[in-house]
């Protein structure tokens, strides 16, 4: 086969222009890393899919530069309720409009609108190029050095050579196949129908998500827009019903007004995780790496967390001589979290369906009793994002320490204006202290080319100071993704594990040379 090449290499090729792929491209572009995004479809997929997002992931969209645009299109939600078959409340997992990351803890949205916002932002960055109608046909070889990506469009067959490839190409990922990864089945598979409706009817809604725990007809319901609603029902053999009958419990007895079915589609909800997420410089993100039932609204959220975790590390390796071992921490940090979220979604799924065996009734009664335990629902609601486990970029946690946790993002006053914390910290490492930095902390900050910032007077309501005091910490070292890497305990003088992570940030190994000779000025503009 004869391939036509555009004659230039690129630092990163991203396969798939869904929310995960485009967000990854934006995060890289904001660090000056050039990428080409290959997408087999020419336009945005017009039908809604993901509908819920949490405050931590809204913070990621803020980091990608689309926080304000996204805020204009979302609708805060009250949280999640579990209902019995008669729609009586069994448990309520309430979410606040003022989450620790500076946004409502749950927001509802329309995925095509989000994708338009992301693509509009992508078009503003010269570091990003989106090629629609480009079907990837091959990824490899799996060897040291640049990775060859082949694709086909209306003009024929082409190839690119990339320093890294991000496979954001969904559940049927060609990238996953190319690196030899296989699925691990986490034991959940059910057929459901998803119905999106636009109506002006007075639909009964508590402005949150309802999960109906009925083994005969489990269901999910949420209001996702001003006049937009979503229902999901498990498919039952020989018991198909018209849409109006299925959603009748939520509609007024006499419905007047318009009623438009935007989408009615059947899906198989699965729980799976890839056995490996990386081979050399080829990585899996989003649905290419993990599949979760949608019951806690974390499918797309998990993919955006993948992008946030990987992109700052990849940029460090490509631009600042970071060690290749830095990239090993992507899977070791993200995979346990993804597995945790999938298992939580499966647990909610089993709570909804109760299973089909003789113990189903016992399980439902046990769930209802457990949900009445004081504080349990609040604890479960906080369990969507547990701290990262100990590793090269997370110091060993002592008791309930801060290492591995995300720093909160309060509103702060800087240069005479109110803004969110991350807008001031930028996208680098940062040291936050309760007092003026010690000489040792100042020396470390200087070596890293960052700032050591006292939190006193920084946040308007003392959130950061209280957060540090509660953990008996005098200072924390924040990674670019705002995860706490290391802690100076109260009365301490310096971070304790500098040597374990400092070697990851700098390496004597040179980046891979380009596969082809390119114009020197172009190469400098790409790698600067």
Characterise the protein shown here.
With 528 residues, this protein is α/β, with parallel strands linked by helices. The chain is built from 15 helices and 26 strands. Strands 1, 2, 3, 9, 10, 11, 12, 18 and 19 form a 9-stranded mixed β-sheet that branches. An 8-stranded mixed β-sheet has the order 7-6-14-15-16-13-17-20. A 4-stranded mixed β-sheet has the order 24-23-25-26. A hairpin with a 2-residue loop joins strand 21 and strand 22 (417-420). Residues 1-5 and 508-528 have low confidence and may be disordered.
Average predicted confidence as pLDDT: 85
Strand content: 25-35%
Indicate the structural class.
alpha/beta
Helicity range: 25-40%
The first-to-last residue Cα distance is: 35 Å
- How many helical elements? 15
User: Given the C-alpha coordinates, what overall shape results?
Assistant: globular
Q: Residue ranges: pLDDT <50 for 5 or more in a row? A: 1-5, 508-528
- Radius of gyration, whole Å: 24 Å
Q: How many E-type strands? A: 26
Largest sheet: 9 strands, mixed
Chain-wise SSE layout:
Blueprint: E1 4-5, E2 10-15, H1 19-29, E3 35-39, E4 52-54, H2 55-63, H3 67-71, E5 75-76, E6 79-83, E7 89-94, E8 106-108, H4 111-123, E9 128-132, E10 135-140, E11 147-153, E12 156-167, H5 174-178, E13 183-199, E14 209-212, E15 219-223, E16 228-234, H6 243-246, E17 259-274, E18 278-279, E19 282-284, E20 290-291, H7 299-320, H8 325-353, H9 360-370, H10 376-381, E21 411-414, E22 417-420, H11 421-425, E23 430-433, H12 439-448, E24 452-454, H13 463-470, E25 473-478, E26 484-489, H14 498-505, H15 520-527
